[in-house]
User: Fold this.
Amino acid sequence: MKKSLLVLCLRRLIAVFAVFAAVISALMISDYINAKRLIKDVDSTLLEMRDSITKSPNDESLKSDFVRLELLYRRAVFADADTRKVGLSLLFFSLFAVAVSSAVLIQKREPKLEPPNANSARERLGASALFRRVAAGAFLLLLCAGLGVILLNYAWKSRGSKSELRAQFAELKELDKSWTSFRGPRNDGLARNADFSGVKGLEKAWEVELWGDGFNSPLCVGDKVLVASADENTRSILCFLKSDGSLLWRADSSAKLKSNYDEQSGPSPSTMACDGFRAYAIFPTGELICSDMSGKVLYVKNFGTPEILYSYSSSLLICGNSLIVQMDLEKTRTLYALEAASGAILWKCENGKDVSWSSPSLVEFEGEKYVVTANCKSVEAVNLKDGKVKFSTECLSGEMATSIAFGDGILFVANDNSAASAIDFKTGKVLWSNDSIILPGVASPVYSDGELYVFTSGGTVSRVEAKTGKLIKEYESMAGFYSSPIIAGGKIVACDNEGKLFLLDVKSDMDFESPAFDFADTLYATPAIAADSLFVRAGKKLYRLNLVK
Assistant:
């Protein structure tokens, strides 16, 4: 009796789970077909709206509608992905239940007692074989249905929609050919993509007015030039065509968020990052915006309003598939490595609460890549792969805003109210420290060919012997420097606060009487360097200057 009841229960379980699996499969197939049709329509609508915004960048109503539709669309895409995951889980559970129940039923099914006759044994064997064939057929049918859903799910992921986050990344050797972050691809002040030796002067190719405000520096990637900008209500990425300065697109976020900034830093002080596949910008709202290279916003990640005096102003750094964000705030100090394509956290390094306005740099040493940061107390090197700290060296103080320089296995830092110091990268130990030279408050030092160059907010410029820290010579400029100097071949490219751009020879006396170009406007941003030109943000304009040789 117990065995018969078990057989009956198993048969009912098989029927229930078979129907359940069939219903789940049908719903998922129907959902895929409907979603594919709707996504195609929304893609088309968003593209048309983006084109309209490019033509009418001041149409606030259109921009608001675009952001609202984009947000709803992305929520729907992610909700659909979650639904498909749940559906697949339920389907595989059902198939597993059918398979297990069928196997147990075949083992537990007892033969029906009948009067003996010549055909009874043959009939029992035939019935048992028929049941096994039916059970096997049902199992194979459900398995095929499950495989069909899996194939549809794969087709969804690889359908090539414009809205899909494409996980393409540029290697460091490719990034080095462009200007992808603050002070270059590694934030070390070295232009590896250009040689300014033999340059006789500069000529203006074009200038364009910029929407909004911002002191961040431009980037140049491929045929595009990018800057970030903002006002009280909107944060934007602006993309211009390198050849003529025409606006290609503008990617906005207009969410109502609290912003913590003052007039000295402005609403968009942090320099962007770009890897040629996506552009990234971060603002004092704590909002990180990622767009593709057509201006479509892929995701917005919010870290919360940064609690920091003056304003959050650390710049972004792109390293392969990792987007590095330095969040040194009043109460927490966190270094993030985000997956660039999605914004997901790959790792984060939390270590104390030492505030800074500095930006992360990339250092290659003995076959490994490290993210190097400076704060108001120490310099830290963190392995790019896993976020593990190689060393943390205390050698700083004051309000740290400058970034590091690197060369010949040595890190260099210099900051006002502190000292200029050199650190052996292998050991993390301080090689020398010099607090007698005039130190910078904003502009980062730069290293070239055995010398360290220090440009200060007061206008004093120092050449320092890199091995010993000894002052070689000191020069005075008529204006101070917030813009960081760049080494491009045999030249130092430096811009003062009054808009004068100088091309200075390395390891030579410096002449601040004859600028290579005068923008006659405030200039706090660091130039972006291309092989044949440079891009400068001065006042509310963006300029392209061509090299004259």
In short: The longest helix spans residues 2-55. The two ends are 100 Å apart (CA to CA). The mean pLDDT is 84.
